[in-house]
Structure formats: structure tokens, C-alpha cells
Amino acid sequence: EEGTLAIEIRLPEGRVADLQPGAPLRFASHARPESPAHSAILRIDPAASERQGKQVFIAEAPLPGDSEFLRPGMEGVAIIDAGERPNWWRATHGLIDAARLRFWID
């Protein structure tokens, strides 16, 4: 909707495949980290964009009504629930991906 504020989330290339619209998230602005807002991903751009020298995918989430203190351009941190993962996966996923890219492992 035009004129409505939304949360813009920059997703790293390596994490976009783990997420989909509807994934719940918690957003805390740098202005008020003690007041996190809860929302869900509405859409994820199908193509990467360059932001601050990095290739990222842009996801959008509606801004909850109780976040009237937020203004355009404010920044913060979003934590997105990508579903359950075993502890071994969380501990080794980054290392395995790096090895696959470095050594061309299938």
C-alpha cells in the first residue's frame, strides 16, 4: 500500500533459499531496541540488489501498528524464524557451504 511504512530486510545470498513469505520475524530498531515489533515476511524480491557494496535480496514485512515511533530510514536488526534445524546443522552449515564453494564439492 502506498504511503504505508514497511520493514525492509536485507537477506544475504546464502540465506534467501531458507526463507519464504509468511516466515515470522522480530524487528528491533536501533532507536528503541527494548521495544521489538513482531511481523512476518510479506514478499522477497526475486532478484538480488546491491546495498552497501553487498549483493542481497530484499524482503519486506508490514510494520505493526504499535510501532508509531519508527520513521523512514531508521535501521535495526531483524531475526527471522526459518524453521527448526538440528544443532549439528547450525554448527556446520556455514563451514560446509564455504568448503563446497572453495573446493567445488557436490
Structural topology:
Elements: E1 6-12, E2 24-29, E3 37-40, E4 43-44, E5 49-51, E6 54-62, E7 76-80, H1 87-103
Antiparallel strand pairs: 1-6, 2-3, 2-7, 4-6, 5-6
In words, what does this structure look like?
β5 (49-51) and β6 form a beta hairpin. It contains 1 helix and 7 strands. The protein has one helix at residues 87-103; strands at 6-12, 24-29, 37-40, 43-44, 49-51, 54-62, 76-80. It is an alpha+beta fold and 106 residues long. Strands 1, 4, 5 and 6 form a 4-stranded antiparallel sheet that branches. A 3-stranded antiparallel sheet has the order 3-2-7, with no helix packed on it.
Helix/strand-derived category reads alpha+beta
What is the mean pLDDT? Answer: 88
Q: Tell me the series of helices and strands, N- to C-terminal.
A: EEEEEEEH
Proportion of β residues?
25-35%
Shape: globular
Strand tally is 7
Estimated radius of gyration: 16 Å
Give the uncertain stretches in residue-range form. Answer: none
Alpha plus pi helix count = 1
The major pleated sheet works out as: 4 strands, antiparallel
| Quaternary structure of the protein | single chain
* Residues in helix, %: 10-25%
Distance between the termini: 43 Å
